[in-house]
Amino acid sequence: MKSIENSIGSPPSAPRSPTYDHKWAICLTLFLGTLSVALSATAVDIAIPTIMSSLGSSLNKIQWVLTGFMITRTALLPSVGWLGDRLGDRGLFILSTSVFTLGSFLCGMSWSADSLIFFRIIQAIGAGPLIGVAMAIMYEAFPPQERGLAMGLFMTGWSLGPFFGPLLGGYLTEHVHWRAIFYINIPVGLLSIVAAFFVLPKMGVEQKKNPFDLPGAITMIAAIGMLLFALSQGQEMGWGSRYIVVLFAASSLFFLLFVILELRTRSPFVELRYFRSFTFSLSNLIIFFRVFGFRGTNFLISLFLQRGLNYSPIQAAFFLLPGAVITGIVSPVAGSISDRLNPRIPMVLGFIILIFTLYGLSTVTLWSSMAFIFFLLSMKSVGQSSLNAPLNTVALAALPTGTSRMGSGIIGMARGLGEAFGIAVLSFLLERYTYINLTYMSPVQGDRFSELQQLEATRHLGEFLTRAGLYGSALEDRAHSLLGRTLLGEAMTRAYQELFMLIAGIYLVLTFALFFLRSPKAATSK
Question: For 277-526, which CATH class?
Answer without folding.
Answer: mainly alpha
